[in-house]
Design the sequence.
């Protein structure tokens, strides 16, 4: 089994991975970072979104070995201890989550959307979240959260 | 900073306490669990809709490295396990004979009856080993004719799914006064008939179903962690009825559950299979569905074909209503499956409108499809769709205004309380005011201007309304247990099941508000057979109505005990003690005792009067609801339809709900908006489709369309709060299902309004671009 070395939330790790091990499985099973969720098997739901070298990917659609040498960011790396990231705070403030299952992927995507476009508007947010399915909220509170989160991130 | 909640917890938009763990990746869902020495289970599912199993050969699979066990129907026969029973509330045919309940084993025995039915369970050291082993199991099927549509299944000569069930009919049903309905039809000026389909959909919680089973050989006790919404009742069924191990030997727990919407209510085969496997190999076994399996094996919802008839006079007065439904049940009776198209769909017939006579009749047949069971609303969405579609259809046919028709026929507050023709106890509400408020906030007055603007873009704009009436349901009893712990925390255990609704917050809010203790000190437990003796779980929008009432009742009992302790300390009569904002005091004196003081004294016999025992403030109480509540409300929506492409854009959405008392508006809004999204999904895009041979065509999220962020309009949610019900302690009328009760008819009505100039007055859901485009073309061709 080949080994890969990745930086995950700032920490370097080296692990052996199987040829068909998905990045999502690697993160959940081998790194025990279970905040990254798997909700489908066709890269549709977006619950598994993480960042790979700064870009969001659906980690169920990437093999672990493809991430060798990469910098990975997961939901666990977003908060600073008990201090949530402004986007996480905004989701709480606006009730942008119910069951919480899609939430990590939703928040990771939202942070990336705003980093790439700090002045993103409602249409941009709705379009940008197309790859993340939420079955609980009807999205409105998520949109409002992302707006508030964007404002806070702009400072 | 400690958070205290005022007004007995009511009316505070408390932010959720569970959010921190969900937002930081520390939620604890079933697939996040791993026990020492845990093995993995995977289910081999039938690729055949209807076939005899001639043989299963697992020799090669078992020889594979890492494979521990293969379970088949032969093992089930040998073990003598029981079948999974239906708990349908309707159990008799119209003629009084019993509902036909075929044996539903957790694994196929000798014959398969739907694609996706469990045929074997593979248990191995890893999921990869499971996958490899599944490839090596040889099953020899002999195909049989299959039938997937309910209207075909009841025909003479249709394939027989069960040898002893003629025409595949599980149950028939009637409710209402057929003579009164017939007389109303004879007397009325018009009878308008509409045939409509309530499309088959599936709950699709984003967390797939899964479970983890453990067996302790020494004690003979099992533990099952299960992504289930109904822990207590399902424990009883699994332990007592199916595995026959005794319910005292099964500890059933749900960790965080990632959405349910009814789809995780029933007793499913897989958790039972892994309990068996855990005992066989004496190791924990975990199984989690992948999404494709979810489409095949999560129970589906709706799937009713109905003929609705509305009798009305020239002046628009409603006279009679008749609905005839054929509701698909799938291959087996779901846990409450047969109830949905029968009792479940009948009770709200007629909505909030006056009628001289209503009659409802249903047939519920089996088909070679996945079993159906409740999906959010379970019958009430079907009822409101029938009612609010036939109104708009009649209005279009007779050249009447659908808004005026509703106005004219709404039950006035002066008629309340009343017993509806279908037997519902409608105690309170103000339907005309709710309806007018809906029209008002939707800016109906500005519609024509917006229509002109759409027209200028080549788009057709339509306005649709629905005035729904529903009823709550689910288990009528709930327990709330409070334990004051030595570490200062207050443990609150309730037998309900939150799968995202925020019980952890709202129940703590109620307890905090009543007792004047800090929200932060409340530790919430739910969905655990060790935490409460009874538990009704989830279903029928019951959480706040029954669970919240139980928390309120227990809080009140704690305060009464606290008063006795305070009275003992101050040497006064308990009747002289008042309690306010966490303090007991004797009016007109300096005698004050905080609730914390009382709690701290409860274990000291010297601080207690003679009639109290140490621990007396640790109280559990069971609240029992007498009669279900009647949520009601108005939905309005505007759509823009592109006649060239058939694309529908929902451009605005307004709701006024009467949920009685609103305890936490933020959470109520969340329930309504999520429900609207599911209703919009059903109306415009979601559809579970089986082909004629019983193959599932929509087996993934690539084929089954769920609403995404840019499919949803901005929603305006308002409430009518002047009619709290006296049926429970909080005055609430359950909020969980209303959104998807009102949305489908409102949206379809709006699309039909947009297309009325073409003569399009009905399209069956989902209103996909192709169907809308085709309907316009067909109407144009028909001239």
Sequence:
């Amino acid at each position: 089994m080949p080994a890969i070395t990745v930086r995950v939330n700032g920490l370097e790790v080296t692990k052996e991975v199987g040829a068909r091990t998905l990045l999502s499985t690697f993160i959940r099973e081998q790194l025990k970072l279970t905040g990254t969720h798997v909700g489908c098997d066709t890269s549709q739901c977006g619950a598994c979104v993480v960042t790979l070298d700064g870009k969001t990917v659906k980690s169920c659609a990437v093999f672990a070995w493809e991430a060798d040498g990469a910098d990975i960011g997961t939901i666990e790396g977003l908060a600073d201890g008990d201090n949530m990231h402004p986007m996480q705070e905004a989701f709480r403030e606006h009730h942008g989550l119910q069951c919480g299952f899609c939430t990590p992927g939703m928040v990771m995507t939202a942070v990336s959307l705003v980093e790439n476009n700090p002045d993103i508007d409602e249409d941009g947010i709705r379009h940008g979240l197309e790859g993340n399915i939420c079955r609980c909220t009807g999205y409105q509170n998520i949109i409002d959260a992302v707006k508030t989160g964007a404002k806070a991130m702009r400072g | 900073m400690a958070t205290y909640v005022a007004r007995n917890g009511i009316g505070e938009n408390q932010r959720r306490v569970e959010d921190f763990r969900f937002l930081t990746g520390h939620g604890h869902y079933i697939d996040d669990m791993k026990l020492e020495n845990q093995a993995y289970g995977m289910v081999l599912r039938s690729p055949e809709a209807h076939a005899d199993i001639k043989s299963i050969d697992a020799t090669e699979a078992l020889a594979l490295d890492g494979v521990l066990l293969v379970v088949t129907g032969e093992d089930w026969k040998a073990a003598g396990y029981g079948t999974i029973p239906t708990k349908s509330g309707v159990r008799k045919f119209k003629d009084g004979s019993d509902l036909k309940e075929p044996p539903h084993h957790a694994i196929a025995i000798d014959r398969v009856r739907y694609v996706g039915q469990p045929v074997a369970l593979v248990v191995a050291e890893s999921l990869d080993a499971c996958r490899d082993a599944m490839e090596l199991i040889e099953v020899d099927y002999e195909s049989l004719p299959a039938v997937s549509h309910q209207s075909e299944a009841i025909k003479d000569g249709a394939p027989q799914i069960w040898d002893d069930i003629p025409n595949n009919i599980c149950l028939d049903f009637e409710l209402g006064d057929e003579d009164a309905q017939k007389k109303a039809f004879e007397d009325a000026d018009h009878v308008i008939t509409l045939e409509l389909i309530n499309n088959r959909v599936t709950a699709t919680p984003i967390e797939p179903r899964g479970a983890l089973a453990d067996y302790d050989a020494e004690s003979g006790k099992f533990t099952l962690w299960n992504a289930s919404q109904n822990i207590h009742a399902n424990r009883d069924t699994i332990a007592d009825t199916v595995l026959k191990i005794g319910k005292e030997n099964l500890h059933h727990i749900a960790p965080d559950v990632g959405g349910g919407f009814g789809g995780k209510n029933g007793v499913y085969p897989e958790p039972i299979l892994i309990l068996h496997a855990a005992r066989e190999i004496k190791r924990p076994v975990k199984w989690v569905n992948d999404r494709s399996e979810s489409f095949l094996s999560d129970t589906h919802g709706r799937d009713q074909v109905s003929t609705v008839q509305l009798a009305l006079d020239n002046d628009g007065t409603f006279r009679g209503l008749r609905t005839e439904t054929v509701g698909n049940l799938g291959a087996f009776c779901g846990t409450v499956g047969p109830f949905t198209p029968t009792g479940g769909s009948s009770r709200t017939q007629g909505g909030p409108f006056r009628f001289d006579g209503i009659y409802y009749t249903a047939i519920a047949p089996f088909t070679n499809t996945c079993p159906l069971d409740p999906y959010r609303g379970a019958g009430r969405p079907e009822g409101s769709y029938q009612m609010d579609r036939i109104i708009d259809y009649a209005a279009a046919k007779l050249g009447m205004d659908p808004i005026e028709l509703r106005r004219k026929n709404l039950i006035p507050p002066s008629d309340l309380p009343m017993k509806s023709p279908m037997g519902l106890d409608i105690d309170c509400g103000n339907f005309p005011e709710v309806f007018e408020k809906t029209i008002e906030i939707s800016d109906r007055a500005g519609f024509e201007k917006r229509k002109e603007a759409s027209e200028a873009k080549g788009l057709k704009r339509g306005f649709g309304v629905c005035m729904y009436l529903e009823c709550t349901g689910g288990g009528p009893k709930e327990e709330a247990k409070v334990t004051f712990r030595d570490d200062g925390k207050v443990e609150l255990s309730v037998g309900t099941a939150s799968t995202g609704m925020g019980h952890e917050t709202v129940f703590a809010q109620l307890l905090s508000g009543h007792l004047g203790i800090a929200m932060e000190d409340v530790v919430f437990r739910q969905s655990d057979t060790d935490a409460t003796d009874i538990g009704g779980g989830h279903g029928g929008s019951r959480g706040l109505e029954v669970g919240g009432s139980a928390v309120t009742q227990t809080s009140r009992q704690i305060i009464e005990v606290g008063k006795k302790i305070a009275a003992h300390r101050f040497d006064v009569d308990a009747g002289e003690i008042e309690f306010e904002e966490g303090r007991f005091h004797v009016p007109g004196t300096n005698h004050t005792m905080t609730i914390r003081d009382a709690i701290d004294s409860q274990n000291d016999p010297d601080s207690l009067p003679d009639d109290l025992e140490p621990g007396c403030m640790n109280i559990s109480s069971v609240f029992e609801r007498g009669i279900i509540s009647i949520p009601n409300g108005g939905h309005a929506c505007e759509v823009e339809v592109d006649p060239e492409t058939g694309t529908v854009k929902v451009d605005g959405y307004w709701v006024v709900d009467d949920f009685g008392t609103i305890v936490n508006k933020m959470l109520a809004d969340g329930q309504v908006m999520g429900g609207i999204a599911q209703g919009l999904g059903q109306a415009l895009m979601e559809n579970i489709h089986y082909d004629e041979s019983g193959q599932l065509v929509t087996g993934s999220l690539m084929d089954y369309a769920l609403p995404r962020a840019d499919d949803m309009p901005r929603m305006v949610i308002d409430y009518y709060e002047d009619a709290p019900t006296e049926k429970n302690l909080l005055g609430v009328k359950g909020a969980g299902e209303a959104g998807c009760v009102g949305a489908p008819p409102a949206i379809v009505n709006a699309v039909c309004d947009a297309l009325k100039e073409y003569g399009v007055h009905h399209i069956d859901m989902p209103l996909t671009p192709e169907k809308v485009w085709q309907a316009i073309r067909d109407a144009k061709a028909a001239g």
Observations:
- The first helix of chain B runs from residue 19 to 23.
